[in-house]
Amino acid sequence: MTSPLSRRRKRALFSYLAAPVSWKRQDPRLGGHSNKWESREIARLIARRGYEVAAIDWNDQESSPAGPFDCLFDIHGNLPRLAAQFPDARKLLHLTGSYNPFQHEAENARIEAFESRRGVTYPPRRHVSDLDSYLEALSIADACSLIGNYCTLSTYPAEVREKITPVTVSASWPLPIKSSRDYAPREREFLWFAGGGCILKGLDLAVEAFAANPKLLLHVVGNIDEREFLDSYRHELASPNILQHGYLDPSGSEFREIVDRCFAFVAPSASEGISPAAASCMLIGLYPIVSRNTGITLPEGAGTYLETCSIPEIEAAASSLREMTSDDVRESIALTQTEAKRRYSRRAFSERMSRYLDIVLRTEWGND
């Protein structure tokens, strides 16, 4: 006879972004930053595998939905608390960036260099406040998914890498996708497009590189509200070849007007998982000048990796690209845009996450 327990539907406690889980597929709020859509999609994929999903926000340290739960899914430091309440549940950790101690060291190194050049004290903007909980979550997780490539994976200690599966990121959506005839506009301008943490993301390096060469024009798109940065670069940000736009909706007309004039983007970030902004720029059809720590994988012979992210290297890469023939620009962008469609689309995210969940949620996995 089948026991009542065996008839109970499996249940998952999902700790990421709670609100998007209940939104409809076409909800306009799923546009913009990819984390809202990805949160909804992961919950949907878990539900498709036979689980009833209860969702809380990743930073909610108080909610305790009624159990039991067969699976716990968390993106940061909630896992230890939840695992203590539901010790028999399968513990899945979703990593969205580089190893946190690596990121702390990377940001500290960038800050030290900035302070040495500019003589301005700058507080870290991208340090996590609950590092101990993060490290415990990483230690106790049965399996981890990682938004990143093998460069991102290499930032993690060797002893935990075997339980980490790299997946991918989905680019922002909708985007102003370029066709081949638009790859090499007459203006040949450049874009810096990123989120918070100006120094970690290398905006200081890009601004200084472009300020050194008036022939190069840089559009800065992002919510740049860090007083120390704005005060330090007041002169450069007022230069006619560096245009600051603030935050812009990537699906909006103003953003489209800017990328219509641009043919390349610059992303000298010191630490990412896979940068959603960089993935979006590649998908749009902009030539990538990126650090390896953006997590972006470039096709052979197309795009440019910054090996040191030094100011002279960034200026030289942009100057060399600006002189490239239109045919060569179009050929390279065609390759990188095609690669972005393969790697960073919503479909690619769903496929990679599905394969991961098929492995870690199958009934014969673990102690079942």
Concise synopsis of the structure shown:
With 368 residues, the protein is of the alpha/beta class.
Describe this structure in words.
There is one protein chain. With 368 residues, this protein is an alpha/beta fold. It folds into two domains: 4-99 and 127-168 and 346-360, Rossmann fold; 180-343, Rossmann fold, CATH 3.40.50.2000. It is 39% helix and 16% strand. The chain is built from 15 helices and twelve strands. It has helices spanning 4-7, 34-48, 79-85, 100-118, 131-140, 150-153, 158-161, 203-211, 227-232, 234-237, 253-261, 276-284, 311-322, 326-343, 346-360, and strands at residues 10-16, 51-57, 71-74, 90-95, 143-146, 164-166, 189-193, 218-221, 242-246, 262-267, 287-291, 304-306. It has a six-stranded parallel sheet, sandwiched between helices. A six-stranded parallel sheet has the order 9-8-7-10-11-12, sandwiched between helices. β1, α2 and β2 (51-57) form a beta-alpha-beta unit. It is globular, with a radius of gyration of 22 Å. The two termini are 20 Å apart.
Question: What integer value in Å does the Rg equal?
Answer: 22 Å
* Amino- and carboxy-terminal Cα gap: 20 Å
**Any idea what the CATH superfamily of the largest domain is called?**
Glycogen Phosphorylase B
Number of domains: 2
What can be said about the biggest beta sheet?
6 strands, parallel
What is the number of beta strands?
12
The CATH class designation of the largest domain is Alpha Beta
pLDDT averaged residue by residue? 94
CATH architecture of the largest domain: 3-Layer(aba) Sandwich
Overall helicity: 25-40%
Measured by DSSP, the beta-strand proportion falls in: 15-25%
What class would the helix/strand composition place it in? alpha/beta
According to CATH, what is the topology of the largest domain?
Rossmann fold
Which spans have pLDDT < 50 for at least 5 consecutive residues?
Answer: 1-5, 364-368
